[in-house]
Write a structure and sequence with these properties.
5 helices, alpha+beta, 169 residues, Aminopeptidase, 8 strands, single chain, 35% strand, 5-stranded antiparallel sheet
Length: 169
C-alpha cells in the first residue's frame, strides 16, 4: 500500500468517483492551474478516468486518489507518469488537491513520497514536475523539495509549463 503519515493512495473506486468528478468538473479554482487549465466536461473526465487513473493495485503510473487517513475522505489525486518533453523521457510526479486542503502541507508530503518511491523502488536517477508559471504556491512546494528550474515549455494540451527537476542519489 502506498501511504504517507497522513495520506493513503488508492485506485479510483465507486466510493470516491463522484468526489473526483466534482473536483475535475466543477472546481474552477483548482482546475485553472492544472492539466488543461479549466474544468473538464463529464465526458472528458470519464475519458481521463479510462486512460490516466489507476484502476487496480498493480499499475504504478497514473493518478491515484489521495485519501486523508483520519477521515477516509478523498482530498485529491496524485501520481507519477512517464512523459516525454523535448525528445527526453522523464518520470514526472504531480498532485491536484481540493482547494479546501491547500496550505496544510499535503503537497509537500506527497512530493516527498514520490521522490522516495522513485528513488527507492523504481531506482531512477531523476524526477521532474511541471507547473503553470502562474501557480506560485505549487512552484514553492517543488522548490521546498529541492527541485530546480530546468526549462519552460508550451504544450498543446497543457499550455505553458515550467519544468523543475531533481537528481536523485
Amino acid at each position: 500500500m502506498l501511504e504517507t503519515t497522513r495520506l493513503r493512495f488508492e485506485p479510483i473506486s465507486p466510493q470516491h468517483l463522484e468526489d473526483a468528478a466534482d473536483m475535475f468538473c466543477t472546481n474552477n479554482r483548482v482546475m485553472a492551474s492544472t492539466l488543461k487549465g479549466s474544468v473538464f466536461t463529464r465526458s472528458e473526465f470519464d475519458s481521463l478516468l479510462y486512460t490516466d487513473f489507476i484502476n487496480e493495485q498493480e499499475p504504478v503510473f497514473g493518478f491515484w486518489c489521495v485519501i486523508l487517513k483520519e477521515s477516509n475522505r478523498f482530498i485529491g489525486v496524485s501520481g507519477i507518469h512517464k512523459i516525454k518533453y523535448q525528445d527526453n523521457e522523464y518520470c514526472e510526479f504531480g498532485f491536484i488537491l481540493n482547494d479546501s486542503q491547500w496550505g496544510q502541507g499535503f503537497a509537500t508530503e506527497i512530493g516527498h513520497h514520490w521522490i522516495s518511491y522513485v528513488t527507492d523502488t523504481l531506482k531512477l536517477s531523476q524526477i521532474i514536475a511541471t507547473v503553470s508559471p502562474h501557480n506560485l504556491a505549487s512552484r514553492r512546494v517543488l522548490e521546498k523539495l529541492d527541485m530546480e528550474y530546468v526549462d519552460q515549455i508550451t504544450t498543446k494540451d497543457r499550455g505553458d509549463r515550467i519544468i523543475l527537476g531533481k537528481t536523485l542519489s
